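Homework help thread (please don't just give me the answer)

Our assignment gives two proteins as sequence + structure token strings and asks us to describe the second one. The first is just a warm-up. Here they are:
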Amino acid sequence: MCNVNILHLIEGAKQAKGLTVIIDVFRAFSLECYLYDMDVKQIRPVGTIEEAFSLRNRIHNSVLVGERHGKKCDGFDYGNSPSTIMKKEVAGKTIIHTTSAGTQGIVNAVYAAEIITGSLVNAKAVAEYIIATQPQTVSLVCMGNGGVRPAPEDELCAEYIRSLLEGWELEDFEQRLNSLKVNGGAHFFDKARQDVYPEADFYMCVKPNIFPFVIKIEKDEIGFIASKENVSMKQ
């Protein structure tokens, strides 16, 4: 069995080696799964707002999606909220995506042999992909809040994926999943912050294993590409 390490935050991404899973449950990589389910053409993660605007000028039919401190970036088409993006508005388009935590993990994982993203909505697919790939080393990187503070939802996702890889049951999984309403996801239930953190986002991000694909990170001459790859799922 491969060597599975759980790392944390941007510093963890910088240390990640082997097959690296960059985990951001609330909301970057849950959102990217939903975007592919909406039939977007392609997702391009970037580290900075300036890169995002530059790429939009180069890519026809592209859409800017992203946040800083949770809020939609000025001049962007959408924030980082899966419940506020409609399929008819993004299908067939290239998404340029930048966030405070998730995409920062991608750009900082400079020693990774391979990068995929992870979230609860495709956790089992991530595990199945890793099992099929059989790497010697796996790094599960919990990006946390802003890449600088631990987040319970990302820790739970990493531990769940590790349990699937190592063949043991995470017995308190359901209990910890439910506790995210008050421990990690309370901001989604703050009536004064619904414009930034809609309650619907919480429920969309904590549905385990609803997508049978992983998102692989590759690079071409103009930057990173986050591509959907279907996974053969075991029952």
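The one we have to describe:
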Amino acid sequence: MNNSGGQKLEAANAFAIKGQVKSCEPYGSGHINHTYLLACQEGGQEFSYILQQMNQDVFKDIEGLMRNVKGVTSFLRRQIIENHGDPDRETLNLVPTKDGKDYYRDSQGYYWRAYLFISQATCYNLVEKPEDFYQSGKAFGRFQCLLADFPAGQLAETIPDFHNTPARFLTFQKAVEHDVMGRAALVQEEIRFIQEREKEMGLAIRLQKQGKLPLRVSHNDTKLNNIMIDDATGQALCIIDLDTIMPGFSIFDYGDSIRFGANTAEEDEKDLSKVSLSLPLFEVYTKGFLEGSEGRLTEAEIEMLPYGAKMMTLECGMRFLTDYLEGDVYFHVSREGHNLDRCRTQLALVADMEKKWADMAAIVKKYTAAP
């Protein structure tokens, strides 16, 4: 990716921004795209924008990606206006180029986009208090509510088979069979753990084909740091990072949040005795998610929320083990066996979920029972 000063200025000047560019500084903590805060000034007034160079190594179909972003944000804007909200703060708003396009391709062939900057709001990387996790759940639940009538099947797959767990399993099986690093003998217990749960992996896809589980607009990266929290109210304001918007399942968006936020240990914790599912955090997120969805989820979706949490955790562990077997070629590692530690943490969390399955189901039922 190219992010020279000249390229940034070329890109900035291509968009229909107000005023003259005064500064363009790196912004945020994202690792995929190059993101900048663009400050402009005109007649004593200041205007701020987010300028991003999109990662063409990760996202091969930039045009499809941007159709997704434009379609979803435009739909959200209309819904927010109908609900008497603030469309400039409650969703991302693309800034068009001077010739009316949604993105710009610079002289070097790199793709850029611009958004209105949302001020007086913050993204947090860690769950510092239960209220944060509740707000996260409420935001992603509302995301499903507002987009319930969006034709998800029209969305492009920006990363094909991203949460196709059976396809991930086939890749894992090939890694075990080829064993290019000679590591399979060291991880037979982990391999067996995953293989024993193969039959569960295709359940969501089977139910979708049977018409029992609806295809939804899926965010696919439902971490806390992809939600802007209003500085004044402390309430969830806007969901960001829409590059992985694709057709998918609400239960997987829910499940990935639980995997990430309700684990009592770090993702690469070596001491597996520290790994468990926090039922209090599971409960506050579930409460927020179901409140935010405002009854737009089906009975099947609600019933399968615990399954979504388990499957996203199992899939993540499987991906870490696949990468370990293939020589750590996908996930960045900082120590020997890093991906194996990550895998073991996820699998330990799956095992703890299985022990607490009745509790998880009871919590879901608690927040769906008639008053």
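TA reply:
I won't write it for you, but here's a hint about the kind of observation we're looking for: The longest strand covers residues 34-42.
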